Structure formats: C-alpha cells, structure tokens
Amino acid sequence: MTAYERAATSLEFVADGADEVEQSPKAKRKVAGLRSPAVLFVQDVVEGVRCVSHNALAMVGLTAVVAVLFLMGRADVRYSLEGQALTWLMERAHLRDGTAGDEADAGDGELLAMAEPEAIQRATATNPSELNRQQSAVAYWISRRYNVAPEPISRLVQEAWEVGRRVNLEPTLVLAVMAVESGFNPFAQSHVGAQGLMQVMTRVHSDKYQIFGGQNAAFDPVTNLRVGVQVLKECIRKAGSLEGGLKYYVGAANLVDDGGYAAKVLAEQGYLRQVANGVKLPVTVSLPQAVVQADVPAVAPAAAAKAGSAAANPAAGVSPVVPAASEAAPAAHRTEQVALLTPTAH
C-alpha cells in the first residue's frame, strides 16, 4: 500500500470515528429514553417494598414490645392466653394422632355412660378474669404461694370479699385465717376435729351447718368459709379486739398465749393487703415463727378463775377450752385448736 493510500485510509478512519462520536450521545439518549420508564418503575417498586417492609417490621417489633409490657402487668390475661394456647395445642395433637383404636372408643363409651352435665355446678371455681383487679391480684398471689389452682382460689377470694362486706370484716383477714389454718386445703382436719378451710370445730358448731344441709357441708369450701367467718365475727365481738378474737378463734382464750397464732394471721393479712394495693410482693415472704414456751401452766390462776366463772355463768357466753386438747398439744401446735367457742344461744 502506497503512502497516499495509507493517508486516505487514515483520514477515512478519523472521519468515521468523528461520526460515531457525533452519533453516540444521540444513540445513548435514545436508548436511555427507551429504558428509563421500565428502570424507574422497577426502582420505585424495589424502593417501595423496602420501605414498606422496614416500616412493617418496625411496627411488628413495637407491637410485640407493647404486648409483652401489657402481659407483664396483667397476670389474668396471661393465664387466659396460656390456657387457650394449651387447649389449642392439645386439640391439634389429638387430631394428628387420630383415634386410639377400639380400646379408646370403649373407654369413651364408658365415660359417656357416666356423663353428668350438671357436675359443673358442684365445682367451686371461678375464672380469674371475672374478678376485679384487686381480687385477681390476690387470687394469683395466693395460687402461687400455696401451690393451688387459681380457679378455686378465685372463687374463695370472691366469696371472702362478699361475705366480708356483709359482716364488716376485711376480706384479707378471712383469707389470712384460711391460709394459716389449712393452707387452702378444703379437706384438712386437725387432731382435735377442726375441719375444712377455716378449721371450724364441726361438732361444736353443728347447728350452724344445719341450714346448709348438715355437718358434711363443712367440706364444701364456700360453706366452711361462711360458717368460719361467722365464728370469727363472734370471737372478735366477745373478745373486744381483733387480736383477742383471734386468740379466741384458735381456742387459746384461757391460755397464757396463743403460740404466735395471731401474729401469723396478721402478718399474712398485711401481705395480702399489699398485694391487693398493687405491690409486687414475692410469694416467698415468711411468717413469724410460733413462740414455744418451756413448761408453763396452760392456764394462769387468774385465767382459770375467769374460766370457772364463765362456766358457772352461761351469760358470759364462753366455755373453757377442752382440757384434753390443750394439755396434749404443745404451744407450737395450738393452731389446730380452732374455733372451740360454744354456739351462741339463738
């Protein structure tokens, strides 16, 4: 190739390059014009999804925090949700497992033959969510402290509030007596015959149980509570003070002391008051220890004379404590000698 041809080729190449440079921005603008709506749409969609997801996750997190804080302050709601969740899980497990065979079907048939829809009426239970905030807090605290189910305790708390209002006694006092006497065991019985939640001497106060159907009603929690409250009210009225009434109630009216019974009841009442007022009190708080004295005569001379005069004068309304029970039991077990007052004349 001659020098002339090479020069001509170079000029042609430069001219073509200039044309490409000239045309390139236009082409780019054309391509950009074609692609920009689609790109913008995709970019907008991606950005929108990102913003929505970010805000949704933030809202979910905020809702979870609020729900946790709410459940921390509402034990009744938390317990209800736990019960519903457990019921749902059990139903799912039952459906997944299916029937258990002919043997299970036969068992269901036997149970069906014994079905008694009215049995629920015998159950002493109330849903804690039906109580007000004070009662619900007390019920859950007692449930955890004494390892009993919240439903029957809720019924007793509800009854204590109602009966306490009727007889002008603080419901926390009634619940404290039950706590110290039986630990909320409705079938408890002492070695001297005190029975039920409030450890009332059933034989001594059999007349009070007649209007409830007889002495076996002592093992109906609500009936025992009502009779026990009436006995406690009579004891306080006879003694003239709360501490003295508790000493009468435990059957230590003619003894030197009550073995620390009144102090334990009043301490438990103080805890229940705090819980009812919204105080977050641990369930492990302890009660005062019973005071056990060395060999001290169970009845001081003055007290014995007073007891003798009371026995001689029925108008005094108080009979001496049963000697066998008081002499056989040490001071540490005097809490079992409960409600030994004779029934008042009607």
Structural account:
The chain is mainly α and 346 residues long. Helix content is 62%, strand content 1%. The protein is built from twelve helices and two strands. The chain has helices spanning 3-73, 75-97, 102-113, 133-146, 150-167, 171-182, 206-210, 221-239, 242-249, 261-276, 301-312, 323-328, and strands spanning 194-195, 200-201. The protein has a two-stranded antiparallel sheet with strand order 1-2. A hairpin with a 4-residue loop joins strand 1 and strand 2 (200-201). Helix 4 crosses helix 5 (150-167) and helix 6 crosses helix 10. The chain is elongated. It starts with a helix and ends in an 18-residue tail after the last helix. The model is unreliable at 292-346 (pLDDT under 50).
